[in-house]
Amino acid sequence: MENKTDNENNWKKYTLIAILLIIVLLFQVNSYKRKFVDLERQINGINRQFYSLEQNLNYSINRIEDHLSQSLSDVISHEIDYENIDTGAKTVDVQISFETKEVDPEAKYYVLYSPIDENKDTEIAVNFLNGTRFHSNFTLSYMNNYSFKIIEKAKDGGIRRLNHDDIYLYIYDDLFRYKTTINSSEISESNTHIAYGFSVINKTFGLDDLAIDKVELSLYYQGFLVYNEDITNNNDRNMMNLNTNNNSTSSFGYSTSDHLIKEDKEDEIEIKYFYAKIVKEELREAYPDFFNKGDNNLNSKLDSIIVVTMKSGQKVTLS
Q1: pTM of structure
Q2: How do beta strands 315-318 and 249-254 pair?
Q3: Which of 50, 119, 252, 311 is most buried, taking the most CB atoms under 10 A from its CB?
Q4: Distance (Å, rounded) from C-alpha 116 to C-alpha 118?
Q5: Rounded Cα–Cα distance for residues 96 and 80 (Å)
Q6: What is the pLDDT of residues 61-104, one digit of tens each?
Q7: The dihedral formed by the CA atoms of 278, 281, 287 and 289, expressed in degrees to the nearest 10
């Protein structure tokens, strides 16, 4: 009986010890949790400080590089532009002017130009204007973007580059890559039709040859052409409307081309709207292997390509 009482007392003692240990452990766990939270806050604070330091360092490096470039360059300023676009010869007239820190009266000065994708410099002599300013006109193909260097040839035959960084003129990009853009677009689909509508901004540079002559819409299913239409004369936006009682869905989006409207002269751009309405049943009948009668959302399976042809014959592909 006495042993039983001792065992019970020991069990109570161990239970109490265990409970105390659990309480201590719980207290320590909570304490560690708070420490981990505090540590996480400190780490986040350090990360923010490092990010801020990195931003400041990058800014300082860029400033140093700019100052270094300016100090190494003997060209104080430059202006470069082009005009007189000739769509027959595919050329433009380029004007470049620059001012140097000093002029050697016995030296001659030149501009070297090269297509950006090539390493083939062509030399053009420049005309002295006054003081330390120079100017030159020359004709280039508009089928390239160009980089320019300015050099000085001394009387003793020495050649010195005056501009530390290349000067760039993106003629091809202006006339091809960014000349014609989709400004806004919308797609609507009902049980019976798919409708595509979009507005196009086209920079003509004041030339009739660079105005829009033809617009075609092509639809592809996994790379296979399933629809093509000349939509040049489809300009009535109201024709985009579909029967909303047939579970019609639509979407609308804007591009980043709106600034062209504000920056360019009105007589140098044209803004036109085009649309196309496709009968879904005709697609199903023409391509039964691609589409079946159970397909309701055909638009999600199609990729659209828009080809804009200018009066000069130049083509621009938009998607």
Answers
A1: 0.61
A2: unpaired
A3: 311
A4: 5
A5: 4
A6: 555 444 444 555 678 888 999 989 998 899 999 999 988 888 88
A7: 130
